Amino acid sequence: MKIFFKFDFKRAFFSKKTLISSLIVLVLLLIPYFSEIKFPHPGLDGINYFIRIGAFSYLPFIAPLLASIPFSNSYIIDKEKDVFSKLFTIIDPKVYFTSHLIVNALVSGFVFLITKTILLIFLISAYGINNTHTDVVGAFSPIYYKSKIAYIIISLLITFVSSAAFSTFILGISTLTKSKFLLILLPLFFVVVTAVILPNTGLVEQLNVMTLFQIDIYSKITGIGIIFYDLILFSIGSFLFYCFGYKKMNKVI
What are the transmembrane regions (predicted)? Predict the structure, then answer.
């Protein structure tokens, strides 16, 4: 299990798809940063700049897609290449599916966590940390006014978990439908429906998928709501991957 997990993790983490996703995340964060430094805000520290950059970035709009790109359609690719006929003579299918589920979640989470952490470290190095506060709303906002450091750590961890959960959801859907095109279409469709259509109908903002990747978008969003949303997405994805991947494969074998 450990040997295959390391192999699976390396091929996902060091893949071109992961690199491309990470670079896009970085670019989408740097664009508002360069706009911010044109009009300096005296007194703002690195953490406040980081929060402002997130608020003005287009990243939440395509974050679901970027979370899905690295490894969510890898099962379909392996199946098309007939990898399983030889692979399952060496390892148990359970090892493959367990490793795949974990690696997909981890790598998708790291795409955002590592990139955002690098930017945060740069901003703190450049602007330091002080006691100045800006207006922050949404999930965990009370924590911000008590400890900005604690708030930003929670924000990064939520982004990691949300990315892992959404990519697992897409992994399950792609396994069910056997369609690689859904990797692109479904995340975008999810954003349009939950972030554009539903709010305009007066339905709850808690369904907005963008809040999973930017926790201060709406004032009514709660931490429990985000965690529950992530749990639902991860559960659905894991269930579909198990039923239409592992269980179906066992019947064939």
Answer: 50-71, 101-129, 149-174, 181-201, 221-244
Predicted pLDDT of residue 210: 92
Above pLDDT 90, what percent of the chain?
65
Give whole-number Cα distances, 117 to 21, 49, 123, in Å: 15, 13, 10
Closest CA to 162 of 95, 100, 94, 116: 116
| pTM listed for this prediction | 0.93
